Amino acid sequence: MEEKITDVPVASGEAAAPDSTTMVEKEAAYEKFVWDNLKRNYIGNYLHGMLGMTGFRLVNAPTFLPAYLHMISGSNTIVGLGLALQQVGSVVSPIVGATQIEHRTKVMPAAMWMGGLARLQILGMAASGWLLSGQSLVIAILGFMFLFGLFMGAQRVVFGLLMAKVIPLSRRGRLQAWRNATGGLIAAILAYFAGRYFIGANLFGNGYGVTFIFAFILTSLGLTALNMLLREPEPPTLRKQTKLLERLKDFPALIASDKGYMYFLFVQMLATAGRLAVPFYIIYAGSTIELTGGNLGLLTLAYLGADTLSNLLWGYLGDKTGFRLILLVSLVIWIAATVLLMNVHLMPMTFLAFFGLGASQSGYMMAANTMILEFGSRDEMPMRIAISATAEGIMASIGPLAGGIMATALGYTTVFGVSIGFLSLALALLIFAVKEPRTARMSTM
């Protein structure tokens, strides 16, 4: 057994804990359940991540959806608005989602609801291209992007908690490495063929719609596999159910109680603000190279292929060193790749820039999503995930819209420069204020 069993302190609002001997026994039973069912739960999480993240990558990659929205609207501002609406949807839903699951012994039923509703929005984006046109199509896509963000925000909390419950700390990096690598490989290959044969040939009169249907099918298969395989333990302690407004009052104390988490939260917010340039990477590339369907597929291949290759490195290195180092390296690569994109005008170098952007984004996401599970107590984990998701959502809502207005008024170079500024601030704060949470946790055991 790799993790020391300790008494869990009772958070405010919880029922009084039983005597320490009983609590130790419950913790031991919980740990035994986790390790006894690790193989089954590992496979379920792997399949869910591989298939689910494959589909979500096709939707969230900074290529297909921004290019599609720009094609049907002809406006940088609309592109920024769409990405902003997607993030607005994710601002409130994580907190609501956390209050709905932090008192439950089993959260998989909520995961099925939230995950299923998120996937339906991808199907809606696909169908809109055949059923609507003109302004109605633009409005429909914007609406589905908002709802997609809404349900993805809640889903992030639920699936983050599920992983923390069933996958031990020492196994999370390699699980994410392999599921992201294989999922990224499938997504990269599919992205190339989608760009070349679906979008380039405008298959069935709506090449983007065909691409999104493939994304819907893959993500749905992943969710189904997880539901069939997962065996979820009942935690020894739970918070009592609390009303949303009362729970919001706990936020300042929850954040201030762990200085490491507080500074990490600021790093997340600054890095997310740096994402204001993401929707415009592909649009800017189109101003320097010919953005044919084939080139669009190649650049998406570069972005997702980097995700595939780098995830193996990020996952295994994170298990050995902790994920602070992964976050630091990712921010450095992100800044360097943005600088490269600003200064190249040939396809090979643009391909390299998108490769760097893909590697940095995958490293950032793995590090941020894993580090947050290592701060503070287990009972407060759903709300910590929700606070971080909400904080990121607020910054991500403002960023793309501001980026779209900035791109129209001042040009893409200014957008990229502001992005680099935010990323540099995040990097400095990470270096000087955030310690590796795994080291701090081990020192208390």
Q: Any overview of this molecule?
A:
The protein is mainly alpha-helical and 445 residues long. 79% of the residues lie in helices and 0% in strands. It contains 18 helices and no strands. The chain has helices at residues 20-36, 38-60, 64-73, 76-101, 108-131, 134-166, 172-199, 207-229, 244-248, 251-256, 259-273, 281-288, 293-321, 324-342, 347-371, 381-410, 412-433, 437-443. Helix 2 packs antiparallel against helix 8 and helix 11 packs antiparallel against helix 17 (412-433). The longest helix is centred in the middle third of the chain and has 33 residues, at 134-166. The protein is globular, with a radius of gyration of 21 Å. The two termini are 14 Å apart.
Quick rundown:
This protein is an all-alpha fold and 445 residues long. It is built from 18 helices and no strands.
Any key phrases for this structure?
mainly alpha; 445 residues; globular; disordered N terminus; 79% helix
